[in-house]
Design goal:
This protein is mainly alpha-helical. The protein has helices at about 1-50, 55, 70-90, 95-110, 120-125, 140-155, 160-170, 175-180. The chain is flat. The chain has one domain. It starts with a helix and ends in a 6-residue tail after the last helix.
Amino acid sequence: MNTIRSQVSACLDGGLGHLDSFGQWVALLGLRALLAWEFFDSGREKFFGHNWFADIQDQFPFPFDVVPPEISWQLATWIELIGGVALLLGLATRFFSVALAVLTVVAIAAVHWPAEWAGFGELWLGYAITDDGHGNFKLPLLFLAMLMPLILLGPGRLSMDAWIRRWLHGGPYGRAALQPIRQT
């Protein structure tokens, strides 16, 4: 009985170990790619659209409500565009994840949060994708939850950040890989 248990345990440890190793390379890439697409697409819509921030500037939380709407529009547009590309590449991932999280919190407060709610039951109606008068903060809240692993864990191994870190520390695939092969 003890041998069967140890064999099953060794098999699971080996299989899960390979899966864990694979996950360190790929798992956060999927998260980054999905968020990159969503934020880049939102920035692209702003880039080609018209500025509607002046209509809702009074709903922005402090200190964003004192920034002129033209500046807010440009900041939001370029943070989403550049941040989307940076997330996809895994470049300055934590910085852009924090910037996009702040942008998302402002969007929730100004656009997606219900205008009025008397209790948690009414607030919960706003946890929806459609806007039927109760707010629609579900999608931005999911984006915030998806940004948290990138803020706390970083971009994962398959990223420019990881490559730069390996290069700076001279690890595998780092400086040694960039050196020309010397013939003796």
